Amino acid sequence: MPLALLALAVSAFGIGTTEFVMMGLLPNVADDLGTSVPTAGYLVSAYAIGVVLGAPLLTGLGSRIPRKSMLLALMALFTVGNLASALAPDFGWLVAGRLLAGLPHGAFFGVGAVVAARLVSEGRQARAVATMFLGLTVANIVGVPAATLLGQHLGWRATFLVVAAIGLAAMAALARLVPRIPVEAHQDVRRELRALGNRQVLLGLLTAVFGFAGVFAVYSYLSAMTTKAMGFGESTVTLVLALFGIGMTLGALAAGPLTDRALRPTLYGSLGALAVVLVAFPFTVHVQWAALAMVVLLGAVGFMTTTPLQMLVMNKAKDAPTLASASNHSAFNLANAGGAWLGGVAIAAGWGWTSPAFVGAVLAVAGLAIAATAGYLDRGQGKGSRVVAAHSARPALEDVTRDEPEVTSPSARSGHSG
What we know:
Blueprint: H1 4-33, H2 37-40, H3 42-61, H4 67-86, H5 91-118, H6 125-154, H7 156-177, H8 189-196, H9 199-219, H10 222-228, H11 237-261, H12 263-284, H13 288-303, H14 306-316, H15 321-348, H16 355-378, H17 393-400, H18 410-414
């Protein structure tokens, strides 16, 4: 795998850390800024809103910017957002800082996924994309627990200062390791919007909203389940979150080669397995070793859905995959918000602390039904245009290392008719 993928993974590590660390810092922030924990929860929503808004907006604005320059600009905005969060004088400014930090999230992963796929030979694109996402999963094993402990001992502002430093390190890695990638002649906002309107792309995004919401229906309340249902002390929460991150990493490692081999079967299998695990979860939660094993399994099958969904929308968007790829992360964040809300409704209704797992199972089945419908509608249409794989390994490396960003078409270079 090219070293450029390491730079993308480091960037993903920083993004993953700042996205999820707020869940562990809410009490600290609330105490320091004189607000309640539920009100501090708006900081999680502010980041998610930033992702949803920023993915299409920044991707569209940057459609004519060379990919490497775009990645650097997005990571610079991410760094500024985290620095602003660290220096925020009051709650309102912290909300603004979180919104700013979330804006480049979807666009970065959208552009990064396209870059990762074009750095490798055909048949290895999903593994390249999964390698980038490993940074996100490792953040949940190391970054989030470490950043939470740092914030608890040195104050939450120190956490965001460290994340800003990670952003600077990621920018240095991107500048050094990522080659220059030319902007395609056909790359413009209107073409990207037309690609986003493709029925298969829309169904893929809808699958992400419902299917991944099943994961967050449980993950959002995993800390409470640890102490109130599993019977562990508060000191074990960090370990449980780390185990979930280990599961995510295992799922990402498995998803890459499986998706390269059979995209839709991998998607169907991961969503089906997610539904089964969610149904079984409440029945194992009172046996501590089984509960911990289920946490790992939940992270694994949940995150196995992300790579096939990412590759699906990129492939079905044909030769304008960037906006569709970025919008996929908006869909994931809508899933985060929707799953957390529905899980909370179940708990508030008095159905018990493990009831979000049943809610999640219903959402996963709905996602599977949408995915299966999309697969049925796609039958007889022929194989989708795999423009992310349009470059063979040698032409891709020749193109991306030129001194000037030559404007060429991937279809013309590869002889692919699209």
